[in-house]
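USER: If only I could read backbone structure tokens as easily as an amino acid sequence. It would mean a lot if you studied the pair and described how this chain folds. Here is the record:
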Amino acid sequence: MKDCKMAAYLSHHQKVLRLYKKSLRHLESWCIFRDKYRFYACLLRARFDENKAEKDMVKATMLLKAGEEEFWSNQHPQPYIFPDSPGGTSYERYECYKVPEWMLDHWHPSEKAMYPDYFSKREQWKKPKVRPHSLQIPGSFTNHQK
């Protein structure tokens, strides 16, 4: 359980924005030609803008629910997924090749000799920044004697 967190509560505004973005992404999958997509995207935006200033939260929630149901019934069966996005063809493709920083400490000196500039700078980065204790804690008790 890598990231075991509770799901964040989304406000009504955030839900509407996510519905709008999902709708646009699925509209891209339906419309191959860009001019046709732009036309329908403008119509979609106009539909969202009609109810933008709705003050009654009950009605706004009903509109959101109706919009989500309409999205569900009209979504694309195979939406376009960006390659690096979750579910895409190259999502986390190179994760297995990432080496943790501490592994470089175990390199043989002959391997480190191939990258002298990097390892000389790396040794400087690793040095702890030691400061006197009195400078680390403001109002420390070094000057107070009883």
In short: The chain has a mean pLDDT of 86. The radius of gyration is 28 Å. The helical segments are 12-30, 34-50, 57-74, 109-112, 116-126, 133-136.
